[in-house]
């Protein structure tokens, strides 16, 4: 069942760049030798959660250039590059309207902007020179703050969930291992 789901996801997901494509990129050329390090491309119990967390962070924090930011962040963190790059696709042109609404609601909830705007900021925004842009400044600021909160929150949750899933998968493989509880032959 898991294999079928993996194959289906492989057909549905956009093509991720390979090691060689990342190394041949002109923006990454100065540090391409670092991307060819095998430790950045292995799936280990430490690199997988780091890669997921950095990919989610980069996916929400930067609207353009998420893949490059995720790839740069994996170098000092020794995280898994393919996962970090792949997870950034959570924010794409099709899901962006949904994430804009979510970020706006999160930003409003955290900042409680409706209760605070009765002071000097509201007077300045509603003055003549900013009146046309007042709604935009409030909405854009709240949404940008919501994206910052989302990037930090999803990175932490992604790290925890991916490490728990990693442990569960490894534990399941160990329990299914044939002859695990068989005794060694006596000599």
Q: Mind explaining what this structure looks like?
A:
With 187 residues, the protein is an all-alpha fold. Helix 4 packs parallel to helix 6 (81-87). It is globular. The model has no long low-confidence stretch (mean pLDDT 78). The protein has helices at residues 2-12, 19-23, 32-35, 47-61, 66-77, 81-87, 96-111, 113-116, 120-125, 134-175. It is 65% helix and 0% strand. The chain has ten helices and no strands. The protein has one domain. It starts with a helix and ends in a 12-residue tail after the last helix.
Count all strands and give the number: 0
Count of distinct structural domains: 1
What's the helix count?
A: 10
The stretches of 5 or more residues where confidence is low (pLDDT under 50) are none
Class computed from helices, strands and strand pairing: mainly alpha
Coarse shape: globular
Q: Helix content range of the residues, please?
A: 55-70%
Q: State the end-to-end distance.
A: 42 Å
Question: What is the ordering of alpha helices and beta strands?
Answer: HHHHHHHHHH
Mean pLDDT: 78
Strand fraction equals: under 5%
Largest sheet: none
C-alpha Rg (nearest Å): 22 Å
Q: What labels would you give this structure?
A:
187 residues; mainly alpha; 65% helix
Structure described in brief:
The chain has helices at 2-12, 19-23, 32-35, 47-61, 66-77, 81-87, 96-111, 113-116, 120-125, 134-175. It is an all-alpha fold.
Spell out the blueprint of helices and strands.
Layout lengths: L1 H11 L6 H5 L8 H4 L11 H15 L4 H12 L3 H7 L8 H16 L1 H4 L3 H6 L8 H42 L12
Helix pairs in contact: 4-5, 4-6, 4-10, 5-6, 7-10
């Amino acid at each position: 069942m898991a294999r079928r789901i993996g194959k289906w996801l492989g057909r549905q997901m956009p093509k991720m760049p390979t090691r060689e494509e990342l190394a041949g990129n002109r923006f990454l050329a100065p540090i391409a030798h670092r991307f060819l390090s095998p430790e950045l491309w292995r799936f280990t119990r430490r690199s997988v959660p780091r890669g997921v967390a950095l990919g989610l962070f980069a996916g929400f924090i930067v609207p353009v250039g998420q893949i490059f930011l995720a790839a740069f962040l994996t170098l000092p963190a020794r995280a898994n590059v393919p996962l970090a790059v792949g997870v950034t696709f959570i924010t794409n042109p099709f899901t962006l309207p949904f994430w804009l609404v979510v970020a706006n609601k999160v930003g409003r909830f955290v900042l409680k902007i409706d209760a605070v705007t009765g002071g000097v900021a509201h007077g300045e925004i509603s003055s003549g020179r900013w009146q046309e842009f007042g709604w935009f400044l409030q909405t854009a600021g709240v949404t940008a703050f919501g994206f910052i909160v989302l990037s930090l929150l999803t990175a932490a949750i992604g790290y925890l969930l991916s490490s728990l899933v990693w442990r569960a998968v490894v534990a399941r493989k160990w329990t299914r291992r044939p002859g695990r509880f068989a005794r060694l032959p006596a000599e």
